[in-house]
Specification:
Chains A, B: Belongs to the HypE family. Two copies of one chain form a homodimer. By secondary structure, chain A is an alpha+beta fold. The first copy, chain A, folds into two domains: about 140 residues, 60s Ribosomal Protein L30, Chain: A; about 160 residues, Phosphoribosyl-aminoimidazole Synthetase, Chain A, domain 2. Chain A is built from eight helices and 14 strands. In chain A, the strands form three sheets. A seven-stranded mixed sheet of chain A has the order 9-11-8-12-10-13-14. In chain A, strands 2-7-5-6 form a four-stranded mixed sheet. In chain A, helix 3 links the parallel strand 5 and strand 6. The two termini of chain A are about 40 Å apart. At the A-B interface, helix 1, strand 1, strand 2, strand 5 and strand 6 of A face helix 1, strand 1, strand 2, strand 5 and strand 6 of B.
């Protein structure tokens, strides 16, 4: 159907975003129709209002937001589009919640190729569809060349928490077991190798993935889970420190139990990175009562996104809230917060 | 209380944001604690998780998101902080909804003064508090100098729609009355005069304001309202065209009925702008059955944010969905969509 508003269709192959696409008039409407609605097609978005209307199930909801400024925009295993869907779905899921809806706000730099924008938005649409979590409302702004960097995407999600589930970063208790859902460092190493054109013999792929289905299986099987968190920026080490501080406890982990791929380990050694601080985008940390840990581990391993799960340590009493690691050589060291920037713009 | 994580407090007077504040480690945690939590203090944000947990009233919810890239960041009558709160509250309210909660995602350019960031976040906190709509979760990213422009803020809001209210852009019907809640063009002219250092004798202030309380009075008094929309980017003209297109109707408005301040009119003439296309941030358009229009007008005028409300025209049948305006000289002209960019980065 032709739309009298747009006598000429956008040139999605050779065109670029210009300032008029952010001005709120006809050009904005055309960008929304021919790029965003085309790729994110769903009934709620098609309402065409400045907000989406829906009736969530009664009960406790969670809301989470995440800005994505990753560079480069396309990387082995994903792109900023699917990452921005997975990232917020995961933040919602880490409350034990079932994600319901997403919003997306785009800040696009003038001159950005429409072709790249279409690829990114299609990747978002596919990720949202695969996850069963539609993007129901959005916004587009354009900034002048040199005032942005390609595209930034801020997604926000809401989800519903099943009755009886109480998961929060302040609920870790001495004696609890600490689990991780798979190998660490894949995402950060993938980005860095792409950014630096390192060309490793084995290409390392980002682990970007939506974890809500894994979480649903986990909370159904072990509703007593105390904490869930995805170790993104700052990596496993920083996330454990956050949880230790928030819960007022210490943690004791064992290096040999932490899953890490041989090629990621090798790349980290080459680059002088500590994999404990490297970002992940498809992994989670779970803390649960010790007597439920083996059952939780079995549930996680039975899920495709948790097949390499491991118990990596235990929560201990410590008024200073330290995270300590027993190293492979039988020693012990304090695993502190990430102090500065290890890898900028990793997500 | 001193926090062992941060032995030295941030220098909020002379310090700047650096890349480490976006890396997710200790510096990020300190920025969140000493800037964001300090200014946005509320119980839900203090949960300290990557998501906020709450129990909304049962019923229909709406969700809306808006990115804010306004330049300059500070302008007569407001700043990007309060604007980002008002903008999303208004998008939620335009469904007739009562806004409940906001999230905020910050994308900050390396080198941005902490002093300015504190002013902006305090302004957000004050706007959120005045509106009774807390900012319950957030995210902070930092991009390298020259890859952003000071700060961009994406806010997302959710709200609950009262039973019996059905407001949507596709519900305008021939015969309906069109109302506007006050003078148009104030925001856009304020930004432009500041940007261009025009120094008018009378400083023109942005009308940035949260309209949810006005909307609550309107839907309580006239639940039959068909459409509500805030004429931001693209101004009154573009918003009327959106509604006409969405509802499959035409619109007939009268120039002499449209409220506009003398100084805004003069500034527009000087700058070669058509005030119909200039952005507003504290005004709304309402469309309702003709026989309820006078009652709705009286309700709007009784509210401080609607005291200059006016009935500006009527919805008509028109298969081409034109917006036509009877001019002051007795003629008539088509008021089309904003075609290109009139004022970039106005919100």
């Amino acid at each position: 159907m032709t739309d009298r508003r747009f006598p000429l269709r956008l040139d999605l192959k050779r065109g670029t975003v210009d300032m008029s696409h952010g001005a709120g008039g006809r050009a904005t409407a055309q960008l929304i129709a021919e790029v965003f609605q085309a790729a994110l097609d769903n009934g709620l978005l098609a309402q065409g209002n400045d907000q989406a209307l829906f009736s969530p199930p009664a009960g406790r909801l969670v809301m989470s937001t995440d800005g994505h400024v990753i560079s480069p925009l396309f990387f082995p295993g994903g792109d900023i589009g699917c990452l921005s869907v997975h990232g917020t779905i995961n933040d919602v899921a880490m409350a034990g919640a079932r994600p319901l809806y997403l919003s997306a706000g785009f800040i696009i730099e003038e001159g950005f190729p429409l072709d790249d924008l279409v690829r990114i938005v299609q990747s978002m649409g596919e990720a949202a569809k695969a996850a069963g979590v539609p993007i129901v409302t959005g916004d587009t702004k354009v900034v002048e060349r040199g005032k942005g960097d390609g595209v930034f995407i801020t997604t926000t999600g809401i989800g519903v928490v099943p009755d009886g589930i109480q998961i929060s970063g302040d609920l870790a208790r001495p004696g609890d077991a600490i689990l991780v859902s798979g190998s660490i460092g894949d995402h950060g190493v993938s980005i860095l190798s792409k950014r630096e054109n390192l060309g490793f013999a084995t290409e390392i792929h980002s682990d970007t993935a939506a974890l809500h289905d894994l979480v649903a299986a986990m909370v159904a099987s072990v509703p007593e889970i105390h904490c869930l968190r995805d170790p993104t920026r700052g990596g496993l080490a920083t996330t454990l420190n956050e949880l230790a501080f928030q819960s007022g406890v210490g943690m004791q982990i064992r290096e040999e139990c932490i899953p890490i791929k041989a090629e990621v380990s090798a790349a980290c050694e080459l680059l002088g990175l500590d994999p404990l601080y490297v970002a992940n985008e498809g992994k989670l940390i779970a803390i649960c009562p010790a007597d439920r840990a083996e059952h939780l581990l079995a549930t996680m391993r039975a899920h495709p996104l948790g097949s390499e799960s491991a118990i990596i340590g235990a929560v201990v009493e410590d008024d200073l809230h330290f995270v300590q690691m027993e190293t492979g050589f039988g020693g012990s060291r304090i695993v502190d917060w990430l102090a500065g920037e290890q890898l900028p713009r990793i997500c």
